[in-house]
Amino acid sequence: MSAAENIPRMDRRKVMQWMLSATATLAVRDRDAFGADAPIKAKGYGPDPSMVTIYKPGDVWPLTLTESQRRTARALCDVIIPADDSSPSASAVGVPDFIDEWISSPYPAQAGDRNVVLDGLKWIDDEAQSRFQKALADLSLEQQTTICNDVASAKPKAEHKKAAAFFKRYRDLTAGGYYTTPEGMKAIGYVGNVPSATFEGPPIEALKHVGLA
Amino acid sequence: MPVITADKLQDKYDVVIVGSGAGGGQTAYTLTMEGVKVIILEAGRSFDPLTEVAMFQLPSQAPLRGEKTPDKQYGFHDCSINSGWDIPGEPYTNASPEPESQFKWWRQRMMGGRTNHWGRISLRNGPYDFKPRTRFGAGFDWPIGYDDVAPYYDKVEMLIGVFGTNEGLENSPDSSPGVLQPAPKLRVGELYAQKHGKKAGAHITSIHRAVLTKPQDAETLPAKLHPGNAKAQGILADHMRSRAPCFWATDCHRGCSIRANYDSQTVHLRPALATGNLDILPNAMAREVTIDKQGKATGIAFIDKTTGREGHAKGRVVVLAASSQESVRLLLNSKSNLFPHGLANFSGKVGKYITDSVSSSVGAHIPAFEGMPIHNEDGAGGPHAYVPWTMHAQNRQGELGFPGGYHLEFTSGRQMPSLTTLNGIDSKSGSSGTLYGRKLKEEARRFYGCQLGFGAQGTMLPNDGSFCELDPELKDQWGIPVLRFHWKWTDFEINQVRHQQKHIREILESMGGKVSQKADADVLKSMKQGGTVIHEVGGAIMGADPAISVTNQWSQTWDVKNVFLADGAPFASTADKNPTLTIMALAWRMADHLMDEMKKGNI
User: Fold this and answer.
1) A162-187 b/e with 16+ CB inside 10 Å = b?
2) What are the chain B neighbours of A160 within 8 Å (beta carbons)?
3) Do B186 and A201 make contact, defined as CB atoms within 8 angstroms?
4) Which of A128, B79, B344, B355 is least surrounded, with the fewest CB atoms within 10 Å of its CB?
5) Which of B131, B201, B168 lies closest to B400, judged by CA?
6) Do B64 and A101 lie within an 8 Å CB cutoff?
7) Rounded CA gap, B16 and B278, in Å?
8) What is the C-alpha separation between B561 and A13, in angstroms, rounded?
């Protein structure tokens, strides 16, 4: 391609870049102006991202949660996946950041979860305030459990139906986010992803467990 | 001769190949090892399996825990770039708005094509699979039989490295002695299914996959594959020594930087480049086959995606290996006074008779696996066992209501957890609410690895309602007319899926499995949509009669003697086997014939 042919292309590219940066700026301002549930305007990672790069939430698109929402998100994550003797809690391994990344995603499959989570976090904090006059994060585990049991119940009361759907979805995201970390994999009993010179098949204890030895 | 840019194209090549996947890779390998000068045009970019594949990365190290997105339609770490069913700027259309009458078209725009992310399942077609008309009175007999292809199956398996066992099964052929690599030990779930599945009539045995389980025999295999060709033997021996056997970790779909599994670049293109007889031009979107006044092909007109400029790669012979429907599209778009309906289309059959694997799946929770002692069963990055089709007697007596059969592939075991690993945990643990807290962690550990499922992949014979044509209006971003698809399931496929669903349930129940999905009264809802198995073949089928087929038995088009097809397009039907191994075997056989014809001066 000759230099002359290149000129309009360069200009167009520049215009595109300018438009994109303007959109990004706008997205940030929107959040400031209208609160956290403004529509997502960021872009995805595109069809040819580096697959070997180690990413963390916020690297590819901006996150959403305010500090007070994050406190609630962390607290709820840890009610769902608390620490125990052998494994850490969900917030200790960054699950709230993952949930923030998820609800901030520019892709359509996550769009429905955005308002479910944002509305749900608000609901559960309001509920904590009205029942115990404190934020969810400042309640005792017993108090937190009282609220969660209402929305985790098989038959939630009519006024808790929406919150119950939120709790189920938030539980799924928390558990999925947790068990995909190294600590979560250890907690669930996944011990692979390690190179080995040989593959010996199942150990005798596993075969005995299912009556094959 | 190396990977080049468009300005480095030579004036003329012996052979111009479109596509660098299984068919194009095998063709280039076979030809260049014998001294033929070849150019491959690849629509995608160069890709380096050594440095670009994510083998050990965890879901937590990818955006959205690596879940699928429109940008990465098989998940973030899947070895696919610029690929998918929907690619911006590269549309296709469907004539019908009904999902069951639509075809979904996967395109893999990268060096090595689809071989980058497949399951490496490498099953041979059997004798019946080539003769459906004779055996079942439907479809078309291929103009070749199993015995014509068997020597090439042996050669391909020796070259790429396939593990498995010889079982003496009807219509699931053995390999010749010494060809297969040792099969890995079966996992506990596979062994459990093997024992209990017998009650449901399932014969479970080692699968065949293109993964090295030991170093290739660089001392003897090269001489078997290239007798009398010292240079080729030397190149292949070096190349075999550069491949490491499987280290029993990481999913094959992510690609393999130690070269243990087959992909076209690792196994075909590297040695082909080492011969000095191969140029590869990436980012070259083929547009049409060019012809001379006598109606002979002269090369490929393409668009260099890096500049937007038109280019022309010239050769004595053109081989289309762009993936079956992309090759069909090229033929249909190569219109001229001599070929007003597209190249090699005097029969009107270009685009006709597309088939795909007939597929559905069922999964279950296996209570016997609860609380299984913790152990590592990553294994060879995919299944070690499968259920071959064995109900030939029922077939013969016409009891089943469909021709051919299907094999079953496992999903089982203690795989690396994903975002959805805990799906269904509430019902498994008998809770009708939402589990959380310490109880959730206990139940997660107890139920992890207890899910086992089977996916069926079955025979499809061609029908008049599954075909493609050029869309009368729409063009892609390069101005190339796009394809419009038509899809039809016949009673054969519907009956087969009904049988699949019932049979899989019986196997799972024989293991004490609790099937969570309800049996679908509407069998179409259980069926995978046409194209979604990514096994589509046909569209330029081979035959014995030029009036009703596009190519002869050598995948050489009837109408243009120097145009050949090396992907799935010449398949006259889909077997109950995955197509890739057969694509490679037919490509090798085609390339041998092509060289004979060149030597004889016929092309």
Assistant:
1) ebbebbbbbbbbbbbbbbbbebbbeb
2) none
3) yes
4) A128
5) B201
6) yes
7) 10
8) 46
- The reported pLDDT for the residue numbered B395 is 85
Residue B179: other Cβ atoms inside 10 A? 18
Q: What is the pTM of this model?
A: 0.94
Q: Nearest 5 degrees, angle CA B178-CA B181-CA B185?
A: 130
Residue pointed to by tokens 């009175």: B137
Structure tokens at A4: 């002359």
- pLDDT at residue A6 is higher than 50: no
To the nearest whole Å, the CA of B343 is away from the closest chain A CA by: 31
Residue A200 C-alpha, separation from nearest chain B C-alpha, in angstroms: 7
Distance CA B120, CA B253 (A): 9
User: Tokens representing B272?
Assistant: 């082909």
Which candidate from A1, A176, A211 shows the least CB-CB separation from B65?
Answer: A176
Kindly report the backbone phi and psi dihedral angles of residue B455, in degrees, each rounded to the nearest multiple of 5, phi listed first.
-115, 130
Task: State chain B's maximal CA–CA distance in angstroms.
Answer: 78
- Give CA–CA dist B144/B157, Å, rounded: 20
Query: Can you tell me whether residue B70 is helix, strand or coil?
Result: coil
Residue A7 clears pLDDT 50, i.e. is over it: no
Across the strands, what pairs with B514? B365
Question: Is the minimum CB–CB distance between A206 and chain B shorter than 8 Å?
Answer: yes
> Assign residue B46 a region: left if phi > 0, alpha if psi is -120 to 50, beta otherwise?
beta
Q: Is the pLDDT of residue B594 over 50?
A: yes
Out of B371, B416, B440, the one facing A175 most closely (by C-beta) is B440
Q: Count H helices, E strands: chain B?
A: 16, 20
Q: Which of B432, B466, B444 is nearest to B105 (CA)?
A: B466
Beta carbons of A176 and A98 less than 8 angstroms apart: no
The secondary structure of B344-365 as a DSSP string is T-TTS-TT--EE--B--EEEEE
Q: Are A188 and A179 in contact (CB under 8 A)?
A: yes
Q: Report the distance separating Cα A48 and Cα A26, nearest Å.
A: 26
pLDDT above 50 (res A31): no
Find residues 147-166 of chain A whose CB sits inside 8 Å of chain B: 148, 151-155, 164
Token code pair at residue B100: 């069951």
| Distance, CA of A57 to CA of B60 (rounded, Å) | 9
Partner B contacted by A86 (CB < 8 A): no
Spell out the domain ranges in chain A: 64-209
Chain A contacts in chain B segment 432-461 (CB below 8 A): 432-438, 440-441, 444-445, 448-449
B437 Cα to chain A: minimum distance (Å): 5
What pLDDT is recorded for position B396? 83
pLDDT band at B289 (very low <50, low <70, confident <90, very high): very high
Alpha carbon of A113: minimum distance to chain B alpha carbons (Å): 13
Q: How confident is the model at residue A19 (pLDDT cuts 50, 70, 90)?
A: very low
A·B CB contacts under 8 A:
226
The alpha-carbon radius of gyration of chain A (Å, integer) is 23
**B278-281 and B38-41 strand pairing:** parallel
Residue of chain B minimizing CA distance to A90: B437
ipTM: 0.95
**Residue B288 corresponds to which tokens in the numbers above?**
């049409």
Classify the C-alpha dihedral B68-B74-B79-B82 as positive or negative.
negative
pLDDT band at B522 (very low <50, low <70, confident <90, very high): confident
Residue B424, H or E segment: none
Q: How many CB atoms lie within 10 A of CB B317?
A: 25
User: What are the structure tokens assigned to B526, written together?
Assistant: 């259980």
